[in-house]
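Reviewer comment 2.1 asked that we show a complete input and output for one of the modelled complexes. We chose the uracil case, as it is the one discussed in the main text.
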Amino acid sequence: MELRIDKLLAHMGYGTRKEVKKLLKSGAVKVDGAPVRDAKTKVRPDEQIVTVWGETVEYKPFIYLMMNKPSGVVSATEDAVEETVVDLLEEEDRAFSPFPVGRLDKDTEGLLLLTNDGQLAHQLLSPKKHVPKTYFAVVDGEVTEADVAAFQRGVVLDDGYETKPAKLVVLKSGLRSDVEVTITEGKFHQVKRMFQAVGKRVVYLKRIQMGPLPLDPDLAVGEYRELTDEEVGMLKQYRPETDEKKGT
Ligand code: URA
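Response of the prediction step:
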């Protein structure tokens, strides 16, 4: 794997890209003993020794990204026909081989995590963990208190599966309703099929929260950023309520 020295150092916590550029200019950074001043220099951190002021940079291979997924791209790493969420990443981020943590439908927008940390991905996706995911949806039809009660009980999907209780909050009810729905499972097209079960159709869907992590409101559709160390820590330590109650 090869990536730009400024990206590597920023990734490793040596400051912003701008600060790292200054650091490079100062001559503090060496690769295999030779000073490197050009931010564009490519390095292979798994093979070469990078030092800052003589201290070796311990290479951390993980990357954690939050994307505000746009509609029209598929949640996959590769696809023969469709554009994928990984295609939207800068080459230097793609170099870490991140994959999407779970799937959003092609026409669904919003919070999508991408990482190469399989263990964390597994923790967040495991059906046993019941990690809550909250969606904003626009629904064709009037969403009623009866629907709220039905979601709370669990609804039967078209394949006979009975969903776990879901929290439905009606933000605006009318011929078109705005709602927020929180589910703890990840069945195929789950939110759309839950509304289908009560005779309604989702016309717009956006994920706004996953576990403890809300979608960053500063991310425009199609944009992404690295998670902060604090956010990664929050995700790693996250234990959903239902998980704690397990076995009681
Ligand atoms: N439920 C859906 O129907 N689609 C998604 O993309 C996510 C949840």
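Helices lie at 5-11, 17-25, 91-94, 118-125, 145-153, 190-197, 229-237, 241-245. We note this here for comparison with the apo prediction described in Section 3.2.
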